[in-house]
Write a structure and sequence with these properties.
CATH superfamily of the largest domain: Histidine kinase-like ATPase, C-terminal domain
Number of helices: 14
Structural class: alpha/beta
Radius of gyration: 29 Å
Distance between the termini: 67 Å
Helix content: 40-55%
Shape: elongated
Number of domains: 4
CATH architecture of the largest domain: 2-Layer Sandwich
Strand content: 15-25%
CATH topology of the largest domain: Heat Shock Protein 90
Length: about 475
């Protein structure tokens, strides 16, 4: 039974009790003894029972107590049913429902919340520029901008966990991506932490969003750093990996095949199995109050899953933690990664832009920013109004539109209608939450340009300029 040999001639009366999981044994035996000592004839309980291979099965035990006329228990007849697979399926269903609930909640607030943060962040930046001569007031403006940016990060992390962030994957060489992040990683770690990079020769290509991978690895770096307050060693390793059918059968959502693996390993405090099992839950943290939001690892988890990958955590108390990210192998050639724009460079222009935004505050703020960059700005509060302006106005170079809007026409539908009579019109979408208008299976539709709210002035300027200068 459960891999244990059965010898009817040399049956140990305590063999059943000895194979109950140590953490459950006292409670199970106490309940059974209570029933035997009482007048009941039926006992049932669910607990963990150890298999011969050392793993624990979840069993449902049903027992019937046979008593004599005086009510004294004479014999117990019982049977165990293995509930492990059923309970695992139920757990997966609960996780799926939790994920959907978080996604609906986050999506519901992300659009409006990011609209507000766009105005707050933008105005704080402008105040910071205007108050260059007043250091105290400028510092207050910069603090406001920093707080708004942190609010945006929280929303982004929740969207990432719920697998509802828009990804822009590119066929990439993870060795090159990690090498490009080396300087950032070294600045993140304290001097008493040694960092080692172990790069696999002949590493396969994979399709991944470079920007989100950087954020994910940075989150893992920060967690590793915090787990080594007295210093230690951190290792980043890449490797080719094959997850076979047996592994896939034991891990939900894993498809057997070839993967590219990148891992972050520390020599820190480590985690016990219970803590490790909850590490990817949103808002779960073992850090002191104010030291962490509990969203870092959940963001990494969501990003990997949305990238059709797999994530595995290994940890032992006093030994450290290793978190491995697996991304499916791609047989396509690596994509060219555009060079990063200079942080100080802000380029404008004189083109005519039709701005479509249903939120009055955001529309006014965005129009002011575009005007300050030299552009001619036309404004509309919804899709039908924008179509009317396009019919009556010539020389519109760019349609800059929100995605989620009232009026029976979202941003994607507006762009499609506009291009029916303005086929050369360039389009830039902006939104705090995209829903499914331009994102399918977690990825931006081909050819779509998106500026996610909230954004800084230089990000707006760079994105508008890039779309206007593009050939498509």
């Amino acid at each position: 039974m459960y891999g244990h040999p059965f010898d009817d001639d040399n049956a140990d009366p305590d063999i059943w009790a000895n194979r109950i999981h140590a953490s459950d044994r006292e409670e199970v035996l106490h309940q059974l003894r209570s029933v035997i000592a009482g007048a009941g004839n039926v006992w049932s309980h669910e607990y963990r029972f150890m298999r011969a291979d050392g793993s624990a099965a979840i069993v449902s035990d049903q027992a019937f107590i046979i008593r004599d006329e005086a009510g004294t228990a004479l014999r117990i007849l019982g049977s165990m049913r293995d509930m492990t697979e059923q309970r695992e399926l139920e757990q997966k269903l609960r996780e799926s429902q939790k994920l959907e609930a978080v996604g609906q909640l986050t999506g519901g607030v992300a659009h409006d919340f990011n609209n507000l943060l766009t105005v707050i962040l933008g105005n704080a930046e402008e105040l910071s520029e205007l108050l260059r001569e007043d250091s105290q007031l400028r510092q207050m403006a910069e603090m406001t901008a920093t707080a708004a940016a942190r609010g945006a990060e929280l929303t982004a992390h929740l969207l990432a966990f719920a697998r509802r962030q828009p990804l822009q994957p590119m066929v990439s060489d993870l060795n090159r991506l990690v090498q490009g992040m080396e300087g950032l990683f070294r600045r993140t770690l304290s001097e008493d932490i040694d960092i080692e990079f172990v790069r696999c020769a002949g590493l396969w290509q994979t399709e991944v969003d470079p920007g989100q991978l950087e954020v994910a690895l940075l989150n893992l770096m920060v967690n590793a750093r915090d787990a080594m307050p007295l210093g230690g060693k951190l290792t980043i390793e890449t490797a080719n990996a094959r997850l076979d059918e047996e592994y896939a059968a034991n891990h939900t959502e894993v498809i057997a095949g070839q993967y590219v693996m990148v891992s972050v390993t520390d020599t820190g405090n480590g985690m016990d199995p219970v803590t490790a099992s909850r590490a990817f839950e949103p808002f779960f943290t073992t850090k002191a109050a104010g030291k962490g939001s509990g969203l870092g690892l959940s963001m990494v988890f969501g990003f990997v899953k949305q990238s059709r990958g797999h994530i595995k955590i290994y940890s032992e108390i006093g030994e450290g933690t290793s978190i491995k990210l697996y991304f499916p192998r791609s047989h396509l050639a690596a994509s060219a990664i555009a060079p990063a724009q200079s942080e100080e460079a802000v380029f404008g222009g004189t083109e005519r832009i039709l701005l479509v935004e249903d939120d009055d505050l955001v529309r006014e703020h965005l129009a002011n920013q575009l005007t300050s960059l030299g552009y001619q700005v036309l404004q509309a509060g919804n899709g039908p109004e924008a179509i009317g302006i396009l019919w009556e106005t010539t020389g519109v170079d760019l349609l800059l539109t929100d995605i989620v809007m009232p009026g029976g026409m979202n941003g994607r539908e507006l762009a499609e209608r506009a291009r029916q009579f303005r086929p050369d019109l360039k389009v830039l979408f902006t939104s705090g939450y995209t829903e499914n208008a331009i994102v399918h299976h977690g990825r931006l539709d081909p050819g779509v340009e998106l500026l996610s709210k909230p954004y800084r002035r230089k990000e707006l300027a760079a994105k508008v300029r890039r779309v206007l200068d593009s050939d498509s």
